Amino acid sequence: KAGVTQTPRYLIKTRGQQVTLSCSPISGHRSVSWYQQTPGQGLQFLFEYFSETQRNKGNFPGRFSGRQFSNSRSEMNVSTLELGDSALYLCASSLLLAGGTTDTQYFGPGTRLTVL
Amino acid sequence: QQQVKQSPQSLIVQKGGIPIINCAYENTAFDYFPWYQQFPGKGPALLIAIRPDVSEKKEGRFTISFNKSAKQFSLHIMDSQPGDSATYFCAASISGANNLFFGTGTRLTVIP
């Protein structure tokens, strides 16, 4: 079974631009979560989507948004990029078990975003 | 506010040693505690996870010890190998919420 794939792997943008990152979950996984990883703040949860609906949201500004499509693929968008948005953006997919219990989150390799 | 505190920040052991990484949490609603391993250029990969109904769990050379009253849990790596050199993250979440709170990570180096 193929793992979580993320595209692109590397991206360079300038301040003020916007960016869209893509994530394809493991086949059959309907929950997709996004995380930001930086040396200073570590791994921080951005948001989670399940069945095209945002289920949870972390403490990030509204410039960070996402969506999920009917095939469970997900995109995240960052508008008006700031230097501090430079980070590794990780996508994770998982099954949602009966009763809403979370299963293992499987991470993709990430998209390395550099904002100049 | 760091919901999960992890120590040490870095750790160097000889091959065959038993590195121990510790984590502590405050939110008593957390009921799922995974450990992830991350190599450079890769995403985190699940090593082992525990729920608070057990005090210890072993999978191969990896063991989690869990102390619910102290709100602490730790990872032990038995017979460590150079290939174990990586960054290790503890995490915590509440069942039903796919929102992992991660520790700050421990960079482990195993010297041959």
What does this molecule look like?
The complex is a heterodimer of chains A (116) and B (112). Helices cover 0% and strands 52% of the residues of chain A. The mean pLDDT of chain A is 93. In chain A, the strands form 2 sheets. In chain A, strands 2, 4, 5, 6, 9, 10 and 11 form a 7-stranded mixed β-sheet that branches. In chain A, strands 1-3-8-7 form a 4-stranded antiparallel β-sheet, with no helix packed on it. Chain A is built from no helices and 11 strands. Chain B is mainly beta. In chain B, 0% of the residues lie in helices and 52% in strands. Chain B has strands at 4-7, 10-14, 20-25, 33-38, 45-50, 56-59, 62-67, 72-77, 86-92, 101-102, 106-111. Chain B is globular and about 40 Å long. In chain B, 33% of the residues are buried.
Shape of chain A: globular
Low-confidence runs of chain A (pLDDT<50, min 5 residues)?
A: none
For the report, how would you describe the main beta sheet of chain A? 7 strands, mixed
Number of helices of chain B: 0
Tell me the helix content of chain A. under 10%
The end-to-end span of chain A amounts to: 37 Å
Tell how many strands the DSSP assignment of chain B holds: 11
Q: Please report the number of helical segments of chain A.
A: 0
Strand segment tally of chain A:
11
Q: Please tell me what the overall shape of chain B is.
A: globular
**How would you state the average pLDDT of chain A, rounded?**
93
